[in-house]
């Protein structure tokens, strides 16, 4: 027996679906507004949700993130009206199981319902049988949980995988995770950076060459395709592969055979291909910049990594993970995160995604020196300025008082000169210790302070060096 929730403001639709589910032996509840439906989801677990798009208090599709953001998120069947192709498209993009056009025949509803529940049972069984090794893949948001499902599917298959996402989202890490959980995990994971390959050296690097095959070929060299034999070949930024190389690689992908430069003998390589790109390959195909036949070959399983701004709830989890990792690497006690730091990390939009977040955290970690807490003041200036500008800009856009209207508030908030000097003094010392904390002589030379004066200031601000 499954537990089903219907969120639809049409009493007749609710009655029909409830009657069907009860006849099939399922527990079924109905809500006529989005608010009531989300309240049900907050109180109990459901296996499946029938979700109407147009509800009195909101759009059902816009609530998909909330609906799926649970420990055991329900599968969703979206109910759309006639002549609403955009609704169907958005439903599929939102990761729903299926969509039904109202009114739909009872037989079709029943078949869709049964397929969704059967799939859910299989997914549960697979999850119990296969515990994924997600080393360094961090996130608890609904979009990342969908990624974990796709990783499990890709790991249990030997088909080609295309990982898409913006720069810095962690596409190579995801590819390594798929390899590590696959049957090829004991063999090599070979990375090819397509963006760095020049046309003149591309075939030599991919397929290898024989001694004397060209100027500078002083010895035989095994190509990366052969090194990936029995393992995984990862083509990073495949969208940068020249058209001439795309044709050559397509044949290799089809036949798993290739010829090293300067050799008359064909070699074989049984590799699993995972590709990654930050570009829209479908658009490139239309523009004649990427081969359509190669696109179809590499795109058997597609896995999209969301940008960090699309998984805001993971920002602090990722930051905490990276600080802990840095502490373990240096064998020091785990540092705390100041609440102001947490708030600033949440407000920043992270255009460089996880890569930028980790780099920022590492900079702040270094500047924190021997302190037990990482503060917002340790963040790079560029991050702090961007957050401040965003915050001030939003305040003005929301109708908050401008500088001229709020002079009294500004004057009240302005610290005394003594407090300001003390704050800046501490900030300077933190940067000094962060950069040269192990070298007292260097700190003295850079600061121009005497040894006794430096130690006195460090003691005053409770900073260890």
Short synopsis of the structure:
The protein is built from 20 helices and 18 strands. It has 465 residues and is α/β, with parallel strands linked by helices. The protein folds into 4 domains: 3-126, Response regulator (Rossmann fold); 142-304, Rossmann fold; 308-393, Helicase, Ruva Protein, domain 3, CATH 1.10.8; 417-461.
Describe the structure.
The termini are far apart. Helix content is 48%, strand content 14%. Strand 4 (54-55) and strand 5 (58-59) form a beta hairpin. The chain has 20 helices and 18 strands. Strands 2-1-3-6-7 form a five-stranded parallel sheet, sandwiched between helices. The chain has a five-stranded parallel sheet with strand order 9-12-15-8-16. The radius of gyration is 28 Å and the shape is flat. Helix 6 (142-155) crosses helix 7 (171-180) and helix 13 crosses helix 15 (353-367). Residues 401-413 have low confidence and may be disordered. It has helices at residues 11-23, 34-43, 64-68, 85-93, 106-129, 142-155, 171-180, 199-207, 224-227, 243-255, 281-286, 292-298, 315-329, 339-347, 353-367, 381-397, 407-413, 417-436, 440-447, 451-460, and strands at 3-7, 27-31, 48-52, 54-55, 58-59, 75-80, 98-101, 161-164, 189-193, 208-209, 221-222, 232-236, 257-258, 267-268, 272-277, 301-304, 336-337, 373-374. It folds into four domains: 3-126, 3-Layer(aba) Sandwich (Rossmann fold), CATH 3.40.50; 142-304, P-loop containing nucleotide triphosphate hydrolases (Rossmann fold, 3-Layer(aba) Sandwich), CATH 3.40.50.300; 308-393, Helicase, Ruva Protein, domain 3 (Orthogonal Bundle), CATH 1.10.8; 417-461. By secondary structure, it is of the alpha/beta class. Residues 137-366 form the Sigma-54 factor interaction domain. The modification 4-aspartylphosphate is found at residue 52. It comes from Desulfomicrobium baculatum (strain DSM 4028 / VKM B-1378 / X). Residues 3-117 form the Response regulatory domain. One of its GO terms (biological process) is phosphorelay signal transduction system.
